């Protein structure tokens, strides 16, 4: 990997880079956090332009999904469980936090495995876990589903809103206007799916990629290697070998493959992306809340008129979330940023979750 360089030396090398500004995207909330927290985006200007992509799974959870989850909270003897960030995400009108304040039984869990204990402790209730996340979270959800079946727990099910990173990246790169030349690949996802999963970005799209860890130095190092190899179209390097192997975590991959198939998925602010979702396989269908409660989340082939209007509504409100999620704009490009839209009063999805680009930018006042 070459000789050890201090951050100052790597930054100096970036500043000596010739030619046009180099546009690099990252698609992971933890990378966004490190970049904003340490002002890395400012430190590498004007040679590098950094953009955040759709790395926050909560931000891209569709309004449809939230509305259906809200409907479930109204059913007698149901306990809804999920991760904390999900409570503030709005559906078309309300969020789960408002339902909780109305007395509906909604509980925050740290891991889906806790839903198993809850189901055992409340055999007279139905427990539903709202499962969102990327390939990082999918294996633990798969494990919880397997465990539920092994223990013959019939009062537990999972409402799946998980997303796959590769089809989302393809969707972005298939847009000829994207202008992205480099990608900092998400280290957490890569630790599960392996280095090979991301090679397509260089092989198929000629975009350079580096798999990186989450410390400020890791991010600067990723930018340094990308800039050093700027002229090599499709340069690829794994700088996070301590956690990311070439093939990935086989046990986690097998778990995902055993329990899930892929399906189309609806992403908030973007629309439907082919193959970007997870869907519980037939063998485990008993644990699929969308089947048990006939939620039809997988029927995402068409957007309703209402949903199309909502997308147009977002644009009319001047929220540029769609462009931010697709790497075409930055939070400060939005006229509502920090004024009408703040973490206390979010207008768009990127301000809702602590992992959203707008929320992170606002936190560090950049
Ligand atoms: Fe959307 Fe708010 Fe971000 Fe603007 S600041 S893009 S309204 S989330």
Description:
Pfam families: HypD. Belongs to the HypD family. This is Hydrogenase formation protein HypD. With 366 residues, the chain is of the alpha/beta class. The protein has 2 domains: 301 residues, 3-Layer(aba) Sandwich (Rossmann fold); 58 residues, no CATH class. 37% of the residues lie in helices and 17% in strands. The chain is built from 16 helices and 11 strands. The strands form 3 sheets. The chain has a 5-stranded parallel β-sheet with strand order 2-1-7-8-9. Helix 11 links the parallel strand 8 and strand 9. About 2% of the residues have low confidence. The structure holds iron/sulfur cluster (SF4). Iron/sulfur cluster (SF4) binds next to helix 15.
Layout of secondary structure:
Blueprint: H1 7-15, E1 22-26, H2 29-37, H3 40-43, E2 48-52, H4 63-73, E3 78-82, H5 96-101, E4 106-108, H6 113-121, E5 126-133, H7 138-150, E6 156-162, H8 165-173, E7 182-186, H9 187-193, H10 200-205, E8 208-212, H11 216-228, E9 236-238, H12 250-259, E10 260-267, E11 271-280, H13 289-292, H14 305-316, H15 321-325, H16 357-363
The structure holds iron/sulfur cluster.
Family: Belongs to the HypD family.
Keywords: Iron, Metal-binding
Pfam families: HypD
């Amino acid at each position: 990997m070459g000789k050890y360089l201090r951050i100052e030396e790597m930054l100096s090398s970036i500043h000596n880079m010739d030619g046009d500004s180099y546009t690099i995207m990252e698609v992971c909330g933890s990378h966004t956090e490190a970049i904003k927290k340490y002002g890395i985006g400012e430190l590498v200007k004007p040679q590098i332009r950094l953009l955040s992509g759709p790395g926050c799974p909560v931000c891209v959870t569709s309004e449809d999904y939230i509305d259906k989850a809200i409907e479930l909270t109204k059913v007698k003897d149901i306990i809804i469980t999920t991760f904390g960030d999900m409570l503030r995400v709005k559906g078309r009108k309300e969020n789960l936090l408002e339902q909780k304040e109305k007395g509906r039984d909604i509980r925050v869990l740290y891991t889906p495995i806790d839903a198993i204990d809850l189901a055992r402790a409340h055999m007279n209730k139905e427990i539903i876990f709202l499962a969102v996340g990327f390939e990082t979270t999918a294996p633990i959800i798969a494990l919880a589903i397997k465990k539920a079946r092994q223990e013959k727990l019939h009062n537990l099910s999972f409402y799946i809103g998980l997303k796959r990173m590769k089809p989302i990246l393809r969707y972005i790169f298939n847009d000829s206007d994207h202008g992205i030349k480099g990608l900092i690949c998400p280290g957490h996802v890569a630790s599960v799916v392996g280095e090979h999963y991301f090679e397509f970005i260089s092989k198929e799209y000629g975009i350079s990629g580096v798999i990186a860890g989450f410390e400020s130095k890791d991010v600067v190092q990723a930018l340094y290697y990308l800039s050093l190899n700027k002229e090599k179209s499709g340069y690829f390097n794994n700088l996070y070998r301590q956690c990311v192997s070439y093939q990935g975590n086989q046990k986690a991959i097998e778990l995902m493959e055993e329990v899930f198939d892929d399906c189309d998925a609806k992403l908030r602010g973007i629309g439907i992306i082919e193959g970007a979702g997870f869907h519980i396989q037939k063998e485990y269908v008993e644990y699929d809340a969308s089947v048990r409660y006939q939620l039809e989340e997988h029927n995402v082939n068409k957007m309703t008129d209402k949903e199309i209007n909502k997308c147009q509504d977002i644009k009319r409100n001047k929220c540029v979330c769609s462009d931010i999620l697709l790497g075409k704009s930055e939070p400060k490009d939005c006229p509502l940023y920090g004024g009408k839209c703040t973490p206390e009063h979010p207008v768009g999805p990127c301000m809702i979750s602590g992992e959203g680009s707008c929320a992170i930018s606002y936190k560090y006042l950049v």
